[in-house]
Amino acid sequence: MRELANYSTSKKGKLDLVKSEYGIERIASQEIRQKILSISYVERKKLGFSKGILHNMKQNAKSDKPFSLNAHVLEKVNKLEALVSGRK
After folding, report:
1. Would you say which domain of life the source belongs to (predicted)?
2. Which residue has the higher pLDDT, 10 or 44?
3. For residues 19-43, b (16+ Cβ closer than 10 Å) or e, as one string?
4. Closest Cα partner for 49 from 29, 66, 72?
5. Are residues 43 and 85 in contact, defined by beta-carbon separation less than 8 angstroms?
6. Is residue 8 in a domain?
7. Among the listed ranges 5-14, 19-28, 29-38, which one has the minimum average pLDDT value?
8. Is residue 73 included in any domain, yes or no?
């Protein structure tokens, strides 16, 4: 967005769109919602989430609206299965 704004306000003469390092993916599947809701506040530390981030993710997962997660956050959520297997 910054590149487009700079180009449209003539701050830059060339439009150079680059792909973001962190992709954002719309999440609406029940499976992902359930994974997020099942993360305990102890497990969140192992996954590398702050309390606030986990709280926001849980609020989004509880709602009926689609939400997005950065690719690296989604990867961490998917690692939850390994943590769950390890504690059994």
Report:
1. Archaea
2. 44
3. eeeeeeeebeeeebbebbeebeeeb
4. 72
5. no
6. no
7. 19-28
8. yes
Tell me which residue range forms the domain holding 80.
21-87
Do residues 23 and 73 make contact, with C-beta atoms less than 8 angstroms apart? no
Mean pLDDT (whole number) for 28-49: 86
Number of structural domains, the chain?
Answer: 1
- pLDDT at res. 75: 85
Burial label for 61, CB within 10 Å (0-12, 13-18, 19+), is: buried
pTM for the full predicted model: 0.60
Q: Is residue 47 part of a domain?
A: yes
Give the torsion through C-alpha atoms of 58, 62, 67, 70, to 10 deg. Answer: 20
Which residue matches tokens 């499976």? Answer: 31
- The span from the CA of 18 to the CA of 58, in Å, is 31
Residue 41 falls inside a structural domain: yes
